[in-house]
Sequence to fold (405 residues):
Amino acid sequence: MSDVFIPRKEGRLRSLDSFRGILVIAVMIFANFSNGDYLVMEHAPWNGLRISDVILPCFVWVMGVSTAMSFNSKLCKGVSRWILFRRIVTRSLLMIIIGVVINVSLVLNRKDFPSKLRIPGVLQLIGVSFFIASTVHLFFFKRNKDDSEQCWHPVNELLLCKGEYLTMLIILSVHTLIMFFLEVPGCPRGYQGPGGLHMNGKYQNCTGGATGYIDLLVFGENHIFQRPACKSIYNTTVPFDPEGLLATLTSSFLVFIGIQNGRTLLAYLHWKTKLTHWMCWIIVLGATAYALAGGFRNDGLIPVNKNIWSLSFVLTISFIALTVFIILYITVDVMKLWNGGPFHYPGMNPLFLFIGHALFSQMFPWKWKVAGYSRLQRIILDLWGAAVWIGVSFYLYYKKIFFSL
Fold:
């Protein structure tokens, strides 16, 4: 395996930090307070895509971009692959442990703790998907020796990363085979619906098909999410976790796509070459997602669905995330029409804000109870909570305090 790396340095990208701040931190915090009581800010009950469905996956994608840049920098400095692998394991375990601790804080005052402790969660999903994609990238990553500017060539790119692509395709194949061919008691093979009243109640206990069944087998009914988004519409009675085990396979593919998009920042000197590369990715991602979903929300072989992290959903999110990032990259880092403020401040401390929000979001000064307030008042309160966290991130930046795993 070649250990030759191009020691190119992009510098800290404000567009990358701004991306985290806008789409992942500020919107996430605002959406998680009370959504301003707007339906568009709620999660889709099953198939489809709303604003809240985009936030977490965008964070997963941008983590892949950051991973590509971080690994390249460390390998160029002579850090061994084995040391980096140990850091991957440590970081992944810490994210999983912190995620479980956050879940513990949600049930700590209940008499039924720990019998009702939810084991999966957001950070758990991120930790596992980061481990899979980063490990694959680490042990297959190599570069050409030539450090001069190159024109992007898709065949050369595929040959250079063939090990990564092949491994991730195997992971996707395993996911697809399980989704379509695993025998779930009382459910048809390949069922991807919400159960409950779906299809006139024909498959009431089949929520999520193989995805839900595996989580029930591994974690048990009491240790997964009890209030899935589909419950309000389809009257489902079976618990279902949107951050379950099968979701980690497709979410790791989302990290992988972010890694490949991030490698472009390092592999090419001129922004126009990078843009050409990214535009090809956008065409492939958009066309494949459209084909899998049949061009419609509820049709096609694999509908766009965040609850089960369907392949079409992951490709759609990659399309959206890369499109937004390109706009930010050109605006902030290339043409410098905007400096990314104030959103790049929370984007530099995303983990701290995520954990802090999860633990303290219902406390003063982020939130307080007001009897009978209107929608406008609720929106103002939600915006206030998000603004306070942005203020916290600015203070941390001013003091040069940055938290990372």
In short: The two ends are 28 Å apart (CA to CA).
